[in-house]
Amino acid sequence: MFGEEELVKVHKTRAGMIGNIVFAAFGLLLARLWYLQVYKGEQLHQFSIQNRLRKEVVWAPRGMIHSRDDQLLVDNIPRYDAILTPQYLLEKEVTLEKLHKILMLEPGSIEKLLKKNQNQATYRPITIKKNIGFEELAQIESLNAELPGVSVQTFISREYKDKEVGAHLLGYISEISQQQLPKFRKRDAMDYRLGDFIGQFGIEEQLDKFLRGANGHEFVEVDSRGRRKRYINTDNLFKGIEDEKPNQGMNVKLTIDRDMQMAGYAALEGKVGSIIAIDIESGEVLAMVSRPAFDPSQFSRGLTPEYWRSLITNTENPLRDRNIQEHYSPGSTFKAITGISAFEEGVIDENTEVFCNGNLRFGRKVYHCWKQAGHGATSITKAIRESCNVFFQRAAMKMSIDTIAKYANMFGLGKRTGISLPREVSGLIPTEAWKQKRYGQVWQPGETLSCAIGQSYVLASTIQMAQAYGAIANGGKIYRPYVVKDIYTPKGEFIKTFTPELLSDFKLKNEKTLKYVREGLFQVVNNPKGTAFARRGKGIMMAGKTGTSQVVRATADKVYQKCEQMDYDYRHHGVFVGFAPYDKPRIAAAALVEHGCHGSSAATPVVEAVVTAYMQKYHPESYLENLEKDKDIHAQWVKTLKAAAPAEE
After folding, report:
1. Which residue from 458, 488, 446 is spatially nearest to 550, judged by alpha carbons?
2. How far apart are alpha carbons 140 and 510 in whole angstroms?
């Protein structure tokens, strides 16, 4: 048993130990407080701030697109989407019931959307309705306290001023899909994410890297349920938590003239087809319209299933640009190429005459002229003017398909023009080697006769035909067609300017070749016997060629059946290609109207409308002068030819 002194000694020892422990504990506590308040204080302060702040994307406005005369074609407008963050969805049934009523959604649609996204993190927002109206926006904002997890996100949406006019050229933007992510990340070396909008067609796709800009971000204060309370200006307030302003994309000026676009669109009203016009001394595309079309604004606002279904089920294919994505038999518009081939090869000259009685027998087959009674004695200019099949087929009998192909290729046919738009087709100019490779068969001489009048295997797009006739008009210069003039910053600083690119400048051997071919093309439009005379545009002094592109080969008993009496799907396409003015050519244009039956009645008025708009706007003095000249020329033809009734092909 210890004594009193020993007991005191023991207690003192224990007290000292306890004191040391308490002191150590306070020391650790103070150290921890110092660590948290001083050493880690700023970092933890940032964490606390971040707990009540949410980082939101500020979408960068895309660059604007203007016409050649600075008319705005594509602009930006705000778009509002209703979004839901599952993490903050507390009273699920009540909240969803209110949302269904506000957004006028089908019962259960939001539940299906939540189930579809159940594997993603609950803090990731889900878009429940895109492009909501101002009334819906106001209701969500006013009921903010009753809708935990529900908010509105603002986007920049594209507005295409003329809607369907030029839709294929301008293209559209839409949200990137899961399947596109790896492809586009690799293509553009950019960290695309779901929810990003990118160009998917036309100029929007081709110049997406210039137009898209760079997104920024901002911080907003939220409550414990994730509801937005207010915007917080974090500039110079919190280190590492700072707003970043978005950078607008580059602006683009096109070579396109808006007034010519509108004229072409109006001329194609009720038709299925396309029109393209180019400057023959530069390759600038002045007009490029395809119908039927689509409203590109629908894609950026949030494409509805109903609208998308209406496009993909439409048998007239409104999503395809018929100027570059489709090729057709050029029909009689190809006869100018055959005529040039024959002239250059010495097969014909300006004095050559062929008698046409309406048909031509070659081997065991009979080839019919479109005019059953025939054209009688026919020269090169008359053959072009009245589109005599027999004349060009007799010339083709003395040439090989490879010879015709050589000149067709020289004028840019059978290959892509190289226009800076995606999905251009190449067309087809057949050769003996091509058929052997494609079908494993020898070329038959009779096939040359069909190709000589632009049928059979021959295929060309309207942009190729416009380019070819441009070369006929300017003496052999082939320019690459282009649609973009300038790319520049919102401050007006030029990033890139596009200039004409001369692909080839060939000279034909016989100086008379183009003279007589052009004369024939002029008479097509301006001679009373010309196939386009009845549809000519006064004051533009246009030269050109009509054509019918056969959809199916006519049997012998139906060769002369009226096209209008055929089933719609079997009717011929109408084609017209021309240039103007005849004496000082500046513009070439080509139009094709599917199942339009005749180039003269279906396609010629479309080209006439676009060329007239061009002449009136850019060369008014020449237009007025040509109005008077047209009267004199017409009077001369009437006097000389007794006002013969015009033909129609």
Report:
1. 458
2. 77
Helix axes 92-103, 109-116, angle to 10 degrees: 120
Residue 93, exposed/middle/buried by CB under 10 A (0-12, 13-18, 19+)? exposed
pLDDT tens per residue across span 219-268:
766 665 555 555 555 555 555 567 678 889 999 999 999 999 999 999 99
CA 355 to chain centre: 47
pLDDT band at residue 430 under the 50/70/90 scheme? very high
State the amino acid at position 595 in one-letter form. Answer: H
pLDDT tens digits for range 16-39: 777 778 777 887 888 777 776 777
Is residue 425 within 8 Å of residue 324, measured between CB atoms?
yes
Burial pattern 573-593, b for ≥16 Cβ within 10 A else e, equals bbbbbbbbbbeebbbbbbbbb
211 is written with which tokens? 């137009």
Q: What gap in Å lies between CA 342 and CA 404, rounded to an integer?
A: 8
Q: How far apart are CA 551 and CA 499, in angstroms?
A: 39
User: Cα–Cα distance between 37 and 51 in angstroms, integer?
Assistant: 18
Record the tokens describing residue 583, joined without a space. 């004496």
**If you count DSSP H runs as helices and E runs as strands, how many of each does the chain have, helices first?**
22, 23
Q: How far apart are the C-alpha atoms of 578 and 590, rounded to whole Å?
A: 7
User: CA angle, 540 as apex, 462 and 342 as ends, to 5°?
Assistant: 55
| 3-class state of residue 287 by DSSP | strand
258-291+321-641: CATH, from 3.10.20.30, 3.30.56.10, 3.40.710.10, 3.40.50.880:
3.40.710.10
In CATH, what class is 55-254?
alpha beta
Q: Which two tokens stand for residue 207?
A: 């110049």
> What is the Cα–Cα distance from 301 to 79, expressed in whole angstroms?
7
**550/572 Cα distance (integer angstroms):** 5
In whole angstroms, give the CA distance from residue 467 to residue 410: 11
Helices 401-410 and 335-344 meet at what angle, rounded to 10? 110
Q: 147-188 pLDDT, tens per residue?
A: 888 888 877 889 999 999 999 999 999 988 888 888 888 888
Q: How many angstroms separate the CA atoms of 618 and 614, rounded?
A: 6
